[in-house]
Amino acid sequence: MQADWDDIRIFLAIARGGSLTRAAAALQISQPTVGRRLKKLEDAFQARLFDRLPDGFALTPEGTALLPKAEAMEAAAAALTAEADGLSPDAEGSVRLSVDEVVAQILAPLLPKLRNTLPAVELEIGIEHLFASLTRREADILIRDRPPQNTNQISRKLFDLDYAVYGSVAYVAANPAARTEDRYRECDWIGYDALHRHFAGGEWIQDRLGNRAPMIRHNDAAMMGDFITSGGGLGVLPMILADRYSNIIRLTDPIPDLKRTVHLYVHQDIRRVAAVRAVIDTLADETRSLETALLGRDRV
């Protein structure tokens, strides 16, 4: 029996997504097509690969045994694709970037320069909390302030990210303690919910509030500046992003405990692909121009 790679891709998508619907969305094909290809694969193996449960699909023992072999096929296919792409000397085609909300906001102003420098390169930017898999080619380039769990990646430092405490002009005027160390006892704070307290500043704020909790808790780092601007309390922001808000005030020096170093990560199998290499080099060049902006405005 010879397995069809397209059917193996569908098997992997169902195993990872847990349903036909999520597999279809991941592969950008119809749900009935996913169902038909799964049946074809199970008929070919003469084995049931998934149990159909009320809350989704779960691997059977036969499916569990197949999974590592299917993942090995996927890795080999990705390596072959990368090798073929690397044979072209021209920087053209599509490059997929995976970034978090903070990095997306920092990189957004650089996109026009990227497009002008690399007119034949299309950029797909996925903004997400979770790490896209470089091994499975869910992304070509990963940009984060912490490394992915993968031993086959190559990293390159892009920039350091400093954080400080901010409050809106109106909130600080109404709450003078915001300008003093009493801010942690007397002021309202905006932070992250329990599931997202690992975001930059989340644990740091909670440590200083003690038994108190932030009065406003959320799960989206991109919204922190808007919530602080609204006057709901004090919060922590990357200094480069705080400058985009005209009515907030920096209340502290850069916080050493919150300093982050942002790296770019790429799988070693695609580092020679011309388009990927060109995007990496251009991003590295352009982020050097952020050095002054990363420090933000002076305290008020």
Give the topology, please:
Blueprint: H1 5-17, H2 20-27, H3 31-45, E1 50-53, E2 56-59, H4 61-86, E3 93-99, H5 101-107, H6 111-117, E4 121-127, E5 141-144, E6 153-161, E7 163-168, H7 169-174, H8 183-186, E8 190-192, H9 202-209, E9 216-218, H10 224-229, E10 235-238, H11 239-242, E11 248-250, E12 260-267, H12 274-288
Helix pairs in contact: 1-2, 1-3, 1-4, 2-3
Notes on the structure:
This protein is an alpha/beta fold and 300 residues long. It is globular and about 75 Å long. It contains 12 helices and 12 strands. The chain is 40% helix and 21% strand. The chain has helices at residues 5-17, 20-27, 31-45, 61-86, 101-107, 111-117, 169-174, 183-186, 202-209, 224-229, 239-242, 274-288, and strands at residues 50-53, 56-59, 93-99, 121-127, 141-144, 153-161, 163-168, 190-192, 216-218, 235-238, 248-250, 260-267. The mean pLDDT is 87. It has 3 domains: 5-85, Winged helix-like DNA-binding domain superfamily/Winged helix DNA-binding domain (Arc Repressor Mutant, subunit A, Orthogonal Bundle), CATH 1.10.10; 88-161 and 260-295, Periplasmic binding protein-like II (D-Maltodextrin-Binding Protein, domain 2); 163-258, D-Maltodextrin-Binding Protein, domain 2, CATH 3.40.190. The strands form 4 sheets. The chain has a 5-stranded mixed sheet. It has a 3-stranded antiparallel sheet with strand order 10-7-11. The protein starts with a helix and ends in a 12-residue tail after the last helix. Keywords: DNA-binding, Transcription, Transcription regulation. It comes from Hwanghaeella grinnelliae. Belongs to the LysR transcriptional regulatory family.
